[in-house]
């Protein structure tokens, strides 16, 4: 209902989580039709936890033989990472389409914001490799607040920080409750450690090389000694770095087919930016 404010008027609660209402059809369709394979790689995040970065890294690691990271024609130089690794519920299953994904070569790379509770059964039942990227909720919230304001029509009023924070703490945010999303995947990663890799944005920032090597092993694409000595790991990190991706022409001006501007996915790319916005009370509350 309109009188419940901006956030509620665009979100719909389904299986305990708040989904963008316009994308609910995609969720239902994905749940009904997606058939995971053992070789699939699924990247899972709550929005604004580093999805774009993880997509770029995964794409660069998996395709490094055909697309060496130092090449001038690398696809990540001309396509936003969201094009290289599509969201199941937002991109693959839209407008009542049931695409044939069987011809795609393995490993297929997909992503999703769906909570564990709403994942297509086949993802849980096959041996596909899930990476869950989590982030400090304070940074994720500030990033989400900026993102929401960026996507609002130019003539509409700004979503106030206090209002957004209050809703976030009540669990009303994109794919929220945030903590339920994270904790379910955390538990899953303990139960199914061979198939679910739980990673934090902050770890990736501090030890990118170590994390990338672990990810590549998890995806069964470990870096050889020769590759390491030739600097392939560093090249991938540099290709996918915030500075590089955010300064590419495609990410400055382009748009996704769903309408979001590519530059909406790049802001600061830092740990701890929340401290410029949070009061003491907010910090304690969150
Ligand atoms: P900030 O708003 O805090 O800067 P998502 O990709 O899940 O939408 O998350 C977006 C957040 O990740 C934004 O955070 C964005 O700046 C940051 N980000 C995008 N690309 C990144 C990269 N290559 N390295 C580090 N952070 C990145």
Automatic annotation (TrEMBL):
Instruction: Note the Gene3D superfamilies from the entry.
Output: P-loop containing nucleotide triphosphate hydrolases
Keyword Transferase found: yes
**Ranges of residues in domain Sulfotransferase:** 38-286
Keywords from UniProt, A to Z, are:
Transferase
Write down the EC number: 2.8.2.-
Looking at the record's lineage, which domain of life comes first?
Answer: Eukaryota
Is-annotated flag, keyword Nucleotide-binding? no
* Family membership: Belongs to the sulfotransferase 1 family.
According to UniProt, the name of this protein is Sulfotransferase
């Amino acid at each position: 209902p309109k009188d419940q404010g901006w956030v509620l008027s665009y979100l719909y609660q389904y299986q305990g989580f708040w989904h963008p209402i316009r994308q609910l059809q995609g969720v239902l369709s994905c749940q009904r039709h997606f058939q995971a394979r053992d070789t699939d790689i699924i990247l899972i995040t709550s929005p604004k936890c580093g999805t774009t970065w993880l997509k770029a890294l995964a794409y660069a690691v998996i395709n490094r033989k055909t697309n060496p990271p130092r090449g001038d024609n690398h696809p990540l130089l001309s396509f936003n990472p969201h094009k290289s690794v599509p969201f199941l519920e937002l991109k693959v299953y839209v407008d009542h389409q049931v695409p044939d994904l069987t011809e795609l070569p393995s490993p297929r790379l997909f992503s999703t914001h769906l909570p564990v509770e709403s994942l297509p059964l086949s993802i849980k039942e096959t041996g596909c490799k899930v990476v869950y990227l989590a982030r400090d909720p304070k940074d994720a919230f500030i990033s989400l607040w900026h993102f929401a304001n960026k996507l609002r029509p130019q003539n509409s009023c700004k979503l106030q920080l206090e209002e957004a924070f209050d809703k976030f703490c009540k669990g009303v945010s994109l794919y929220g409750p945030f903590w339920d999303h994270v904790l379910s995947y955390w538990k899953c990663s303990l139960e199914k450690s061979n198939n679910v890799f739980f990673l934090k944005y902050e770890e990736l920032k501090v030890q990118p090389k170590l994390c990338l090597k672990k990810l590549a092993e998890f995806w069964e694409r470990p870096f050889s000694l020769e590759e390491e000595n030739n600097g392939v790991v560093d090249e991938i990190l540099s290709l996918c770095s915030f500075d590089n991706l955010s300064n590419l022409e495609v990410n400055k001006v382009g748009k996704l087919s769903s309408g979001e501007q590519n530059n909406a996915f790049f802001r600061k790319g830092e740990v701890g930016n929340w401290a410029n916005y949070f009061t003491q009370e907010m910090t304690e509350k969150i």
